[in-house]
Design a protein that fits this description.
Number of strands: 19
Number of domains: 3
Distance between the termini: 40 Å
Shape: globular
Largest sheet: 6 strands, antiparallel
Radius of gyration: 30 Å
Helix content: 40-55%
């Protein structure tokens, strides 16, 4: 049901909101917006509305209902246009089917997986920040004074959103999802796919401007919306850039179709364009000003010509048409109305312009390349990249084909530029040229991270120009060559883009639905009982556990009191390194269900256990341990350490010596065996790069029921067999970071004592999403099913010898009145 609501129903609701709001803007702006632009213009209006309502913190919770009211007002004011809508859809099926197709392709990994999720998990955790920000802003508005800065949750929100970080896409996401009460973690990828699909309408109109019609125009629009680099950014949830791209391509139509709206409606005609540019600024920040400036400069030149009474070419005409004069007063009114509407729509950004400029400068100048190991290649702007990821260069024949398709796209783009000159489409030619100039100038001055974003935002313009070359082929003097040449060029351009996207689709890592569903259940059960220490590396927990005030020692913003538990960002958390007194501020500890992890201190008791997580609750009134010590692995050494610890017990005080039992573990030595050809290693993990089977022997000390545990980052299906019989199939099991072992829920098996053989098989890749994604096996081991790992045993310090002979993880000296009952 969650999948249906998030992936199918939610985009429909979002479309209804955007169309209604677009109709409202159309009514306010003089009825000049074509149907293909209603959705992106409506999205821009909703961004403006949600920014304003959350800026007034008291109105923030009403944002979803204000958005609904705006849409209803648009429908009420546009009854006549709505009556013509069914006929328009029937006459122009590409305008309706195209966005649906673009949405389906953008969300393909989630749709074909058939479960609520989001794609390219583990690629970039910025989406966790946007989920967290969208939820917080919709609940509390853009007010951050009451945040608890001692833990990761508060630090993340404060250091991002309280510094004028752009939140336009977040408020639109949060407000629209709240109407259906769908969790943002499941609405996030559908929202990205929807916003990308909204760019189809303006791209279709622009494709017609270069001379394409019918199916060719629709195919060109689809290729322009989904070039390889844009598709890759959509998969990793780059919500700011994807939303800004829709605003960018929509504003381009207002530039090239200036005749349609500049005269006749007065000053209000500039409102739709102003909203689009303000929406881009609200989504991407003042950095969008570069792209807005391109539109403003071209339109400024057009206005100047009109004021002077110069003759301008009519839309699509080959010869100059009669010019239209625009009084200077009218031009000034258009500019002022646009500036006023834009300033109001982007008020939170404008109100703290210095902070917004500072954030943009920090992003543009950051030396941190993010998830980019190397800078992107300039040729990726042509929309083709057969490498499986925009971060990885193609190899072998894929590299040869990529270069051939890029060369074709380059030649075709030059032909497209000549086509615009022949059509005397000066506005579109000027806009395209300034877009390319802006990219070239910025690419020289920006660092790796910002340059990649600029490259992505420029790619649709270049792809559109390449399709202009296809239109030019249709005008070849040799009539017999026109259709075959245009068909071959169109096939090469479209198949190159779709093949690039298909390779990225197959390499997509999908977020583990069941694990986040369990995490959400923890949030509901223990809501308001934090702060909570979270020992697993997964920054999406900051959103899912948003009511528990999470602190993660291995997050970007670790709580200062807990930072010593991890060596740095993304490193495994060792709870043993946290002083017992520092834990006193955390009533709850959430750990992964993993017998190899040490049990929390004796002051905590197990309050809840699921398939993935354990929740430990601090006993009421429990004091911090007087001394906590990790014990060595050998029995004689442990006994000496217990004796030394017992001798530290203060005289004349009721103190207990408490120890946590270590689990009995039988390792399967996979790394000692020779792996199949093509398999490699990633740190301690075994990379199952290709189909193959690895077999390893092991011995059990006794018969009975055993838990079989698998650790690894495994997206495609991997089969585990015991003595030739299938035991388990693992797939879609990923964690937030490859540095931290991901433990799969165990399977319980009845196994005889003695020697056995375990086999791990990765089968041939199919067409399922993620079939070529992560497949790293870190560890396989077994533990007795009936054994309670981490069970406590308490004795008086004088009886320390009673603990010798049994393996323990740690021991503590604690006040007798604060030791929980032994289990």
């Amino acid at each position: 049901m969650t999948f249906i609501v998030s992936a199918l129903l939610y985009p429909c609701v979002l479309a209804v909101l955007c169309v209604g709001s677009g109709l409202l803007v159309d009514a306010l702006g003089g009825r000049s917006i074509p149907g293909a632009l209603l959705v992106p213009v409506g999205a821009a209006a909703l961004i403006a509305l949600s920014q304003l309502s959350t800026y007034a913190a008291a109105l923030a919770p009403a944002t979803p209902y204000l958005m609904l009211a705006a849409a209803l007002a648009g429908y009420a004011l546009s009854r006549r246009r709505l009556a013509r809508l069914p006929r328009a859809c029937r006459d122009r099926p590409w305008a309706v089917g195209g966005p649906v197709c673009a949405y389906a392709l953008a969300l393909a990994p989630v749709l074909l997986a058939g479960r609520a999720s989001f794609s390219s998990y583990m690629a970039l955790a910025d989406s966790a920040v946007h989920m967290m920000g969208a939820d917080f802003i919709l609940r509390h508005g853009q007010s951050y004074a009451h945040l608890d800065l001692r833990n990761s949750y508060g630090q993340f929100l404060n250091d991002y959103y309280n510094t004028s970080y752009p939140s336009g896409a977040d408020t639109l996401l949060g407000g629209s999802a709240a109407l259906l009460r769908v969790q943002l973690i499941w609405a996030f990828q559908p929202f990205n796919a929807f916003m990308l699909a909204t760019a189809y309408g303006p791209c279709l109109l622009l494709a017609r401007r270069v001379g394409l019609r019918g199916a060719l125009a629709a195919l060109a629009a689809l290729s322009t919306v989904l070039p390889a680099l844009v598709y890759g950014y959509e998969l990793i949830g780059s919500v700011k850039e994807i939303t800004a791209l829709s605003m960018l391509m929509s504003s381009a139509w207002f530039v090239v179709a200036h005749r349609r709206w500049m005269t006749g409606a007065g000053a209000r005609a500039s409102i739709p364009l102003a909203l689009l540019l303000a929406g881009g600024v609200s989504a991407l920040g003042v950095a969008f000003g570069v792209w807005a400036l391109v539109a403003v400069v071209v339109l400024g030149g057009i206005l100047a010509q009109r004021v002077r009474g110069a003759r301008l070419p009519a839309r699509g005409a080959r010869l100059p048409a009669r010019g239209a004069r625009l009084p200077a007063r009218g031009a000034v009114a258009l500019l002022l109305a646009g500036l006023l509407a834009g300033a109001i729509a982007a008020l939170p950004t404008v109100a703290d312009l210095s902070g917004s400029v500072r954030v943009a400068g920090e992003i543009a100048g950051t030396a941190n390349p993010g998830n980019l190991p190397t800078p992107l290649r300039a040729i990726q702007v042509f929309g083709v990249w057969l490498g499986g990821s925009y971060k990885v260069a193609p190899t072998g024949s894929a590299l040869v084909i990529t270069h051939a398709l890029v060369a074709l796209a380059l030649v075709s783009a030059l032909g497209g530029a000549l086509r615009l000159i022949a059509l005397r489409a000066h506005a579109m030619l000027a806009w395209s040229a300034l877009m390319l100039i802006a990219w070239l100038v910025l690419s020289v001055s920006l660092t790796t991270w910002a340059d990649a974003k600029t490259l992505m935002l420029t790619s649709p313009t270049v792809v559109l120009l390449a399709w202009g070359g296809v239109a030019a082929l249709l005008e070849l003097p040799a009539r017999r060559l026109r259709l075959p040449a245009a068909a071959l060029a169109a096939a090469a351009l479209s198949l190159g883009v779709l093949a690039s996207d298909a390779l990225q689709y197959r390499a997509s890592n999908l977020a583990p639905t069941a694990r986040y569903t369990e995490m959400a259940a923890i949030n509901s059960r223990f809501k308001g009982r934090g702060p909570t220490l979270f020992t697993d590396f997964d920054e999406y927990s900051l959103y899912v556990l948003r009511d528990l005030d999470v602190g993660g020692p291995d997050f970007v913003y670790p709580p200062p009191a807990l930072a010593a538990a991890a060596h740095g960002y993304g490193d495994p958390v060792d709870i043993e390194r946290i002083p017992p007194a520092a834990l006193a501020a955390y009533p709850l500890i959430v750990t992964r269900l993993d017998p190899l992890l040490p049990r929390p201190p004796a002051a905590y008791t197990l309050a809840w256990q699921g398939s993935y997580y354990q929740v430990w609750q601090r006993a009421r009134g429990a004091a911090a341990a007087l001394r906590h010590q990790t014990l060595s692995g050998t029995a004689p050494q442990q006994c000496r350490e217990l004796r030394a610890l017992a001798h530290e017990a203060p005289a004349g005080r009721a103190v207990s010596l408490t120890a946590a039992r270590a689990p009995s573990v039988v390792e399967v030595a996979l790394h000692a065996e020779r792996p199949p050809a093509g398999w490699g290693h990633e740190r301690a993990g075994l990379v199952m790069s290709h189909p193959g089977t690895l077999t390893a022997p092991f011995a059990l000390p006794g018969a009975g029921r055993w838990r079989l545990w698998v650790q690894g980052q495994i997206m495609p299906a991997v089969s585990i067999a015991l003595d030739g019989r299938h035991a388990e199939t693992v797939s879609g099991q990923l964690s937030g970071n490859s540095l931290v072992p991901d433990t799969v829920p165990p399977v319980v098996l009845a196994i005889a004592a003695g020697r056995h053989t375990l086999s791990v098989t990765r089968g041939p890749s199919g067409l399922a999403p993620g079939d070529r994604a992560s497949a790293v096996l870190d560890r396989v081991f077994l533990t007795p099913a009936r054994e309670a790992g981490g069970a406590l045993r308490s004795v008086a310090p004088a009886r320390w010898r009673a603990l010798c002979g049994t393996p323990y993880e740690w021991a503590e000296l604690v006040g007798a009145n604060s030791v929980p009952a032994a289990r």
